[in-house]
TrEMBL record:
GO terms for molecular function: 4 iron, 4 sulfur cluster binding; catalytic activity; cobalamin binding; metal ion binding. It holds the Pfam family Radical_SAM. Its cofactor is [4Fe-4S] cluster. It comes from the Bacteria. This is Uncharacterized protein. Residues 5-137 form the B12-binding domain. InterPro entries: BchE-like (IPR051198), Cobalamin-bd (IPR006158), Elp3/MiaA/NifB-like_rSAM (IPR006638), Methyltransferase_Class_B (IPR034466), rSAM (IPR007197), rSAM_horseshoe (IPR023404), rSAM_sf (IPR058240).
Length: 699
């Protein structure tokens, strides 16, 4: 029988981090001379109907994490509707984390084959069987499939790739590396970071993590160096990132790597992630890493409560965590940490203990929320505890929690709280405790002596200052995140915060804000975007957060949530019953929040409360125009940005006219007719209202 030479269609889900795993899969297809078409849905939205009618594919393949469940399910249903008989293959962690009956359930997903473990040992064998027209898949290692006669789900034992014998390099030439080049460390702005593996697997058996084989398999050093030399010869990048779960297991392995790396003719700075229980790790180890070019490392803290660490089977202790970070600090190598909120059995006191340790040890860390990720021990525990009533519904609505401050996360009420903190107190406790942590970070790791310079032509604001850790000069473009811009030091690579209120132009306004906000009895925050969220993240002004009555939604959304984080979202009509004494405008994308609020109160025959802005009055207009120019010059919304620039300039001219020209009523009407002819009735009405308001205020 002649072998089928049709192509495999392989599709990557729309995640934005570097697709290292997919690059390895494409490499193994190339090594085995398997023809394929590859589509990256992060960059393109394929027309599957046209694609499948034009090409007769052997099979369709995709895969990823549980966070890609809905994408994979919807894509498979689309493929099935167009070409019902096309074999469907999926791989990645989703195949071992999801209950097999959901994978084969036509309503949930409806796959034909699942690859468990490493695709390099399974996928070529499966494609070979399909190409030969075989229906016997019992010899394909690591394959999940349904027996045709019994409909029983069969799970073949996976075969581990021999890392010592085979050096498989990722097929980056199939990936648009220019798109992903900034994905590995977004806060580093223009630094191009490429990912590399020193091995596969992890020794951990953590309850919150997707199950591993419980072992770390390291790659031969010569293979790693060959890959690095290839990347250096082929691509222009700044930093290497060793992205496997653990860099190495012992001090001796780390030192051997450092010696080999130093022998390379061309070298790049590098960073890595570690476990705090690396055998025999000490200050000398970190010094050796630094001398070999390591500029940044880090390890999972998760919790500083030994009780919680034991529950999560982390196999580490608070004492080991402190020892690890102190050694890195003594070696003067930046060491970032991560800890988790909402661990199984965690109380408010446990969370406070973790944050106190991070602050006392001055750890530059980040935080994530615990997810009851299918396949993990905590997921199984949640099922036993009756916290998950409908597994199908849970799968359909799951997405990995982006973090407590993510603006796009509109369904916090669906978050599965497995901690010992009650549901009604969970979010208030989390935000209160994390605010202490993030405020510490903001004030401890920062850019000193901040100065700025505006470029009107390009629409940019350049900021420069001094790194608080090493004294080096830091230069960065402002991202207009007034309350929480994060950057990094180009010399010591420490993540740093920028405090714009330290600028001479802003400091007096900041003092006024502190005084006014601290005296507020009933405070409403106007806005539900980045700056509003940063008010919850950082305590910049010494607020009494219990006096915040809610967040005013300036533009009503179709999918409006009742809550902004854990606080009420307010529509403007609610202001009358709340009767705030002060309103702080945090996010004002169109620039007319104050006008809208004052008009609302005027319409209802009452005076507006005191309205405050994050930006000084004499800076708001110029900053707004600069930002619009920035959007125009960078291609982000050309027409909209251009219209706003013109709008802003016309308003400024009318305000100038009201102050100095004393326009008569008849001339006002002429002006309105001219504006209506130029810009249209709706625009002119809004513009004229602004003009009248400013005239009354100014004259």
């Amino acid at each position: 029988m002649q072998k089928d030479s049709r192509k495999l269609l392989i599709v990557k889900p729309p995640y934005k981090h570097s697709p290292l795993g997919m690059a390895y899969v494409l490499s193994c297809l190339e090594r085995n001379n398997i023809p394929f078409d590859f589509i990256d849905t992060t960059l393109t939205n394929p027309d599957y109907s046209k694609l499948l009618k034009k090409n007769d594919y052997l099979a369709f393949a995709t895969g990823g994490l549980i966070s890609n469940f809905n994408f994979i399910s919807q894509t498979i249903h689309t493929i099935r509707s167009i070409k019902p008989g096309l074999p469907i293959i999926i791989g990645g962690n989703i195949t071992k984390d999801v209950n097999p009956r959901f994978l084969f359930d036509s309503e949930m997903m409806g796959i034909d084959f699942g690859i468990i473990g490493e695709a390099e040992t399974s996928l070529p064998c499966l494609i070979d069987e399909l190409s030969n027209g075989s229906d016997d898949f019992k010899e394909v290692p690591g394959l999940l499939f349904k027996d045709r006669s019994s409909s029983e789900v069969i799970k073949n034992h996976p075969k581990r790739l021999d890392l010592q014998d085979i050096n498989i390099l990722p097929a980056w030439h199939h990936i648009n590396i220019n798109y992903y080049k900034y994905a590995e460390a977004s806060y580093m702005h223009n630094q191009v970071v490429l990912p590399v593996l020193t091995g596969r697997g992890c020794v951990g058996v953590c309850t919150f993590c997707s199950p591993t084989i419980g072992a770390f398999r390291k790659r031969p050093l010569e293979h790693i160096m060959e890959e690095i030399e290839f990347l250096l010869s082929k691509y222009n990048f700044d930093i290497l990132n060793f992205v496997n779960e653990m860099f190495y297991q012992t001090k001796e392995d780390i030192l051997r790597f450092c010696e080999e790396y130093k022998r390379l003719k061309t070298k790049k700075p590098w960073m890595c992630g570690m476990r705090v229980d690396v055998k025999n790790i000490d200050v000398d180890t970190f010094v050796a890493m630094k001398e070999a070019g390591c500029v940044l490392t880090g390890a999972g803290i998760e919790s500083s409560s030994n009780k919680i660490l034991k529950i999560m089977k982390k196999q580490t202790t608070k004492e080991e965590i402190i020892k690890f970070y102190r050694a890195a600090k003594e070696a003067k190598i930046p060491c970032l940490g991560t800890f988790m909120v909402g661990n199984e059995g965690e109380t408010k006191e446990d969370l406070k203990e973790t944050i106190d340790m991070v602050i006392n040890e001055e750890m530059n860390a980040d935080v994530s929320l615990v997810d009851a990720y299918p396949g993990t021990q905590i997921y199984k525990s949640a099922l036993k505890r009756g916290l998950i009533n409908d597994e199908k519904d849970y799968y359909k609505n799951i997405h990995l929690t982006p973090g407590p401050y993510d603006l796009l996360w509109r369904n916090r009420e669906r978050y599965l709280n497995i901690s010992a903190i009650s549901n009604d107190r969970f979010w208030s406790v989390v935000f209160s405790e994390l605010r202490c942590f993030y405020t510490f970070l903001f004030n401890r790791f920062k850019v000193l002596d901040v100065k700025y310079k505006r470029n009107w032509l390009l629409g940019t604001i350049s900021v420069n200052g001094i790194c608080s850790e090493c004294g080096s000069t830091v230069k960065v473009l402002s991202d207009y995140n007034l309350l929480g811009q994060l950057t990094y030091c180009p010399k010591c690579y420490t993540p740093l915060h920028i405090n714009y209120y330290k600028l001479e132009d802003f400091s007096r306004h900041y003092d006024m804000l502190c005084e006014e906000l601290r005296s507020a009895e009933k405070l409403v925050i106007a806005g539900t975007q980045l700056q509003a969220m940063n008010i919850l993240r950082y305590d910049h002004f010494g607020l009494n957060y219990e006096r915040i009555k809610g967040f005013l939604e300036l533009e009503r959304k179709k999918d409006s949530s009742p809550l902004f984080a854990h606080m009420p979202i307010l529509q403007i009509e609610k202001l009358l019953s709340i009767a705030p004494d002060k309103i702080l405008i945090a996010d004002d994308p169109t620039g007319d929040a104050e006008l809208m609020i004052k008009m609302f109160y005027s319409k209802n025959g009452t005076n507006a409360p005191k309205i405050l802005h994050l930006v000084p009055d004499n800076k708001r207009f110029s900053l707004k125009i600069t930002r619009y120019v920035s959007k125009f010059t960078t291609g982000k919304g050309h027409r909209g940005a251009f219209d706003r620039i013109i709008w802003g300039l016309v308003i400024k001219l009318l305000r100038f006219g009201a102050l100095f020209l004393k326009i008569e009523p008849t001339l006002k009407q002429i002006s309105k007719r001219v504006l209506r002819r130029l810009f249209g009735a709706t625009f002119t009405k809004e513009l004229y209202l602004k003009y009248i308001l400013w005239k009354q205020k100014s004259l």
